[in-house]
Write a structure and sequence with these properties.
The chain contains four helices and twelve strands. The chain is α+β, with helices and mostly antiparallel strands and 290 residues long. The strands form two sheets. Strands 3, 4, 5, 6, 7, 8, 9, 10, 11 and 12 form a ten-stranded antiparallel sheet that branches. A two-stranded antiparallel ribbon has the order 1-2. A hairpin with a 3-residue loop joins strand 7 and strand 8. About 5% of the residues have low confidence.
Length: 290
């Protein structure tokens, strides 16, 4: 039996290494024009090498060309940064256009004689009125509105909060794609939101910053803390895998971890995300569109 298997094995290698001759003949003279010899093993090797170089060429084209931006799930930080930068430049351009229009209206009114030169303050490059040089009389409706507003805000204690977050916070990236299962409820000691998403989904940094803590805790699992400018701190809990270390800098929209189910205080794959401002927890839904 062993001899038969050995004979079959030798015959198999003999068959795939057996060379075949392919010849091309002239139909009129029956003269052999061109021929070559090729075995099955050589044919498989040639096809394998061709497939390898085809895959390599395709990968190089995708990596070095903008085609990669159309791949599902591809995160191009440079493209995202360019989009945010263009949005900021467009907003600045709109303000400059409004200022220039206001400036031209003033000049046109002066040239037409509908506005006296001494009736306005000197117009500088930003073209605005200096309200300190003159006082506009208030109407009765405005006085009533101010009086009612001051009466309503007399006992508003929120104005005494020294850590009130700024209203003009820069653009924040969404940390993960998913559904919010638990909202922000500080009265119940839930200082963040829970985002239910697929296991091992990418977790993104909401802003540029520096990783100040990475580690594992019994209740919260794998945790990563990122310190941002303007006093903001973002916290990401229950991660499956941390991709950044303490001391590393991250860019807005960069992948920092993978969604997991680590820690005792979790019932399934999700991300517990918290956003703090100078020691005070704030509602992430007030700054990020989920």
């Amino acid at each position: 039996m062993a001899e038969k298997k050995q004979r079959h094995k030798k015959s198999f290698w003999h068959r795939i290494r057996l060379k075949y001759k392919l010849s091309f003949f002239n139909e009129n003279t029956l003269e052999e024009v061109w021929s070559f010899r090729l075995s099955q093993l050589s044919a498989f090797l040639i096809l394998g090498i061709f497939a390898f170089f085809l895959v390599l060429l395709t990968s190089v084209i995708i990596i070095t060309t903008p085609i990669r931006n159309y791949l599902p799930g591809y995160l191009d930080v440079e493209v995202r940064r360019a989009i945010v930068g263009n949005a900021l430049r467009a907003d600045s351009l709109e303000q400059v256009i409004a200022q220039q229009s206001f400036y031209l209206e003033n000049v046109s009114a002066i040239l037409l004689g509908t506005m006296e030169i001494d009736s306005i303050s000197p117009i500088d490059s930003v073209a605005y009125y200096n309200s300190e040089n003159y006082e506009i009389p208030r109407s009765d409706q405005e006085l009533d509105f101010v009086r009612n507003f001051e009466e309503e805000e007399r006992y508003n204690l929120t104005v005494l909060n020294p850590n009130q977050p700024p209203a003009d916070v820069i653009f924040l990236f969404k940390p993960a794609n998913g559904i919010i299962s638990s909202p922000f409820e500080p009265q119940n000691n839930h200082f963040g939101i829970d985002i239910v998403t697929a296991p091992k989904e990418s977790i993104l940094a909401v802003m540029d910053g520096t990783v100040i803590y990475t580690g594992y805790e019994i209740n919260d699992g794998n945790i990563i803390h990122i310190q941002h400018r303007n006093g903001f701190l973002s916290i990401y809990k229950h991660n499956e895998l941390l991709l950044k270390r303490t001391g590393e800098t991250v860019t807005a929209g960069e992948v920092i971890a993978l969604v997991g189910n680590t820690g005792n205080q979790t019932t399934g794959p999700h991300l517990h995300f918290e956003l703090w401002y100078r020691g005070t927890a704030v509602n992430p839904e007030d700054y990020i569109v989920f």
